[in-house]
Amino acid sequence: MTDSWDTIADWYAELLRAGSALNDFNRDVLLDHLPDALSDHHVLDLGCGEGLIARAVAARGASVVGIDPSLRLIEHARSAGTAGPGTVTYTVDDGCVLGTVADDSVHWVTAGLSLNHVPDLDAALAAVRRVLKARGSLAFSIPHPCFEAPDATWTPVTEGAVRRVIGHYLAEGFWRSDNPQAVRRAGNQHRTLSTYLTALLRHGFLLEAVTEPAPSVQVAAQQPHRSGLPPFLVIRARRA
Ligand SMILES: C[S@@+](CC[C@H](N)C(=O)[O-])C[C@H]1O[C@@H](n2cnc3c(N)ncnc32)[C@H](O)[C@@H]1O
Question: What Pfam families does the annotation carry (predicted)?
Fold first, then answer.
């Protein structure tokens, strides 16, 4: 069977709810780019999955809409609910279209580890720009494209030590991992760093922050091979 986000949805929801240090870390470094208090703010969470980031944004008081093309993940998100004080609703939608989201309607768009899944980055950025209010911002994270390129491996170098060996950094496009335990068995759209940055500029975004956070203590404990490399690239960009 060829996996998709719908076929791995139950596995992914279980992975996060059991406690994935890497996904929790991604949520935290992304939310570092948003204000602590978000009451009166409308936020779109693009590619919300089972709602990990949408719930955390609502905990800051925002009214959040989470969209995702996977109905099964949206069902998981709905069943998790939210503790407030903000609100969250979830809708099936495609981040390249955002057909359920009105023009000029949100102060923030968050996209945690999801723009690396949209097949058309230009369409997604055009849709994000359309739904953002004037001076609204997009905050997104992606697996660091320089280290998470197609066919990258963790290769033993000495007893107990491994190094990241980069595969095909310049090979942009769709690829999928053949590791049955990897998230990217459902596929991934690899793009270079310059492709992301130039697309943001082309769509009229101003770069406000670019971060490459070192793994947290929790990530290093769960995945020691990751020490010394930033697992994610995080960018905040404002609608000019
Ligand atoms: C790694 S998961 C991240 C989910 C969530 N943001 C999180 O941090 O747990 C990637 C998500 O991107 C979603 N996705 C795939 N294609 C998409 C598209 N065209 N538009 C929006 N989201 C998409 C998947 O369904 C999945 O929920």
Answer: Methyltransf_11
Separation of CA 40 and ligand 1 centre (Å): 26
Q: pLDDT-derived band of residue 160, with 50, 70 and 90 as boundaries?
A: confident
- Sort 1 into a burial class: Cβ within 10 Å, 0-12 / 13-18 / 19+: exposed
Nearest ligand 1 atom to the CA of 94 is 20
Regarding beta strands 63-68 and 42-46, do their DSSP bridges make them parallel or antiparallel, or are they unpaired? parallel
Give me the domains of the chain, ranges plus CATH numbers: 9-144+190-239 (3.40.50.150)
Give the pLDDT of residue 1.
75
pLDDT digits (tens, 9 = 90+) for 81-105: 888 899 999 999 999 999 999 999 9
CB 113 within 8 A of CB 141: yes
- 155's CB contacts (< 8 A; 6+ apart) are 162, 163, 164, 165
Among the ranges given (15-19, 42-46, 83-87, 109-113), the one the predictor scored with the smallest mean pLDDT: 83-87
Distance 67 CA to ligand 1 centre (A): 9
Ligand 1 pocket (Cβ < 6 Å) reads 5, 16, 23, 26, 46-49, 52-53, 68-70, 73, 94-96, 112-114, 117-118, 183
